Amino acid sequence: MSPATSTMESQEHRDLRAAVAALAHRHGPEYDRAALWAEAGKLGYLGVNLPEEYGGGGGGISELSLVLEESGAAGCPLLMMIVSPAICATVIARFGTDEQKRTWLPGLADGSLTMAFGITEPDAGSNSHRITTTARRDGGDWVLTGRKVFVSGVDIADATLIVGRTEDARTGRLKPCLFIVERDAEGFGRTAIDMELQAQEQQFELVLDDVRLPAGALVGEEDAGLLQLFAGLNPERIMTAAFAIGMGRHALSRAVAYAKERRVWKDPIGAHQAIAHPLAQAHIELELARLMMQKAAALYDAGDDAGAGEAANMAKYAAGEACVRAVDQAVHTLGGNGLTREYGLARLIAASRVARIAPVSREMILNYVSHQSLGLPKSY
Questions:
Q1: Which of 236, 248, 235 lies closest to 70 in space, CA to CA?
Q2: Helix (H) or strand (E) holding 54
Q3: Non-local CB neighbours of 137 within 8 Å, separated by 6+ positions
Q4: Backbone angles phi, psi at 146, to 5 degrees
Q5: Nearest-5° angle of CA 244, CA 248, CA 249?
Q6: How far apart are CA 315 and CA 291, in angstroms?
Q7: Could you give the angle at the alpha carbon of 183 between the alpha carbons of 177 and 189, nearest 5°?
């Protein structure tokens, strides 16, 4: 199902949608991730949000989220788009040194380089203040020690952007900082996590055992870590919304096609309101989630980080809920066929839950909205 051509989108955006959709449908649900990634990079889709001087398209998260949504709607979402160009490349483009930009951005833009992102820890969860991965100075170097979990695509990434904490010399308190850790750094170990979820990108646990890094591995300023961190987390939420909307659209399109053809009595089952109305409701919810995603992306691209934070959280929440309901209804529409490998919907039952859980749970988003938007007191 194609999105409505609303006046909210420029002709350039509609053309980009059409081009990405054509590419993604040519690869289809049985896509080869590496092949699709390489072709999308060559065509400029992976770096559409990055500065032109480094080989990017000069656009923003508005354009990048569109690319991910359309690839997902065709059944071949590129999950690493959330991480590599959206989080890591955005942070480097905004805060990195000139050398970091020259080293990483051209490759991240054309897809020849990929970067993972490590923030989650076994005992920290959504509480970034409990992050225990620490960075200490040793002469002119940094030494990182700690653990990370649920880090996507480390095996295919050339480096990982690690969130650690350094000690403030004035207060002694730990503050967040970001470091580029290349994949072959000594002491940087990874172990694949055995997931029930079937995805092309694996999840990993990382161990940083006194990983020694040069001074140039620190991204931006040591004292601006929190600002830099949130500069990557807002795009992460917007892109997760795009991932969910694309998946929901894909499931819904399969269900609608089936409902138009499947006959039990005289008419196709889609003629019956018990089938038609839930599918219509799923479509409405996905469209509403897209509107909030577009708002969040527009605010972020305009430099309104505070406004984008609220909208990005709302977009991620709305898209995650809409995706789960769309997938559930699609499977239900197909009945037993919805659980067969032939129709490809059963694997989405687990995948659709990702947008409810990651990168932040829906409950934490509700906490954010209740505190930040409504001004209600905290219980923690």
A1: 248
A2: none
A3: 143, 166
A4: 155, -170
A5: 120
A6: 8
A7: 85
CA proximity to 95, closest of 200, 199, 225, 185? 225
Residue entry with tokens 């972020």? 300
**Residues 362, 299 contacting (CB under 8 angstroms):** no
Residues 6+ apart with CB under 8 A from 70: 17, 20, 21, 24, 246
- Whole-model pTM above 0.85? yes
CB of 41 closer than 8 Å to CB of 16: no
One DSSP character per residue, 122-178 reads TTTTT-GGG---EEEEETTEEEEEEEEEEEETGGG-SEEEEEEEEE-TTT--EEEEE
Q: How far is CA 364 from CA 321, 356, 378, in A?
A: 14, 10, 12
Q: Which token pair is 124?
A: 């920290």
Tens of pLDDT along 279-315?
Answer: 999 999 999 999 999 999 999 999 998 899 999 999 9
Alpha-carbon gap, residue 123 to 243, rounded angstroms: 27
Sign of CA dihedral 361, 204, 162, 246: negative
225-249 tens-digit pLDDT: 567 777 789 999 999 999 999 999 9
- CA nearest 85: which of 71, 99, 104, 100? 104
Quote the tokens at residue 117: 């992102």
Contact by Cβ (8 Å): 61, 68: no
- Tokens representing 284 are 């409405």
Name the phi and psi angles at 217, rounded to 5: -80, -20
Residue whose token pair is 């955006």? 13
